[in-house]
């Protein structure tokens, strides 16, 4: 279920690091090129985030579509990593995925053991998040779509975005500001709650027939 148990916690009082690290969940942050994945991980992380950004090169201009994000000068080439404590005893490890097609071979490795994912979307380039939506739907990894509300971008409601992306019924769509820590944290809480319900339902479905036959 994507739960990471670090084993017996070391002795410590309430609020100690040992208590806070008792349970950690792996979360992916995905989406198209320039949608704000690195920004979101950096905004919510309580530790200095690990970033693998490189300056965009002239060679990359041939394969990276920068329409709508012309001011972007760097790109993630491996992953971003951060951590946030949601409450005592529960932390999230955040793994930001690279957005360009040529780095997608990393996604399968990053997705191993993930509880769920956040798919960031930009309404100016909504089609860019289709591949991420397809990826998680096909692998049955629970996800929420978080619309990063860029200045100057068209404003659309959650239902409109869900219809445009042809999401499976029940997939949450939330509006957010990837630069704002509280906004990003709300997105992550929504994901954990949704993924928890999905995994619980699947578990009950898997044990239901056996339980009824006893």
TrEMBL record:
Pfam families: ATP_bind_1 (PF03029). InterPro entries: Gliding_Motility_GTPase, Gpn, P-loop_NTPase. Keywords: GTP-binding, Hydrolase, Nucleotide-binding. Coiled coil: none annotated. Belongs to the GPN-loop GTPase family. This is ATP/GTP-binding protein. The lineage of its organism: Bacteria, Bacillati, Actinomycetota, Actinomycetes, Kitasatosporales.
């Amino acid at each position: 279920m994507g739960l990471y148990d670090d084993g017996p916690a070391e002795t410590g009082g309430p609020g100690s690091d040992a208590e806070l690290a008792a349970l950690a969940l792996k979360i992916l942050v995905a989406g198209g090129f320039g949608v704000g994945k690195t920004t979101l991980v950096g905004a919510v992380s309580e530790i200095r985030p690990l970033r693998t950004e490189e300056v965009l090169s002239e060679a990359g201009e041939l394969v990276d579509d920068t329409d709508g994000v012309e001011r972007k000068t760097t790109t993630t080439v491996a992953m971003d990593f951060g951590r946030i404590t949601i409450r005592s005893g529960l932390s999230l490890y955040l793994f930001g995925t690279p957005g360009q097609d040529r780095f997608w071979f990393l996604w399968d490795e990053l997705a191993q053991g993930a509880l769920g994912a956040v798919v960031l979307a930009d309404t100016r380039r909504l089609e860019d998040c289709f591949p991420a939506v397809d990826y998680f739907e096909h692998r049955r990894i629970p996800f929420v779509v978080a619309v990063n509300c860029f200045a100057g971008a068209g404003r659309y409601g959650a239902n409109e975005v869900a219809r445009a992306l042809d999401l499976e019924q029940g997939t949450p769509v939330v509006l957010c500001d990837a630069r704002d820590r509280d906004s990003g944290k709300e997105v992550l809480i929504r994901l954990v709650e949704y993924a928890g319900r999905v995994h619980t339902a699947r578990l009950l479905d898997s044990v239901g027939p056996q339980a009824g036959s006893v």
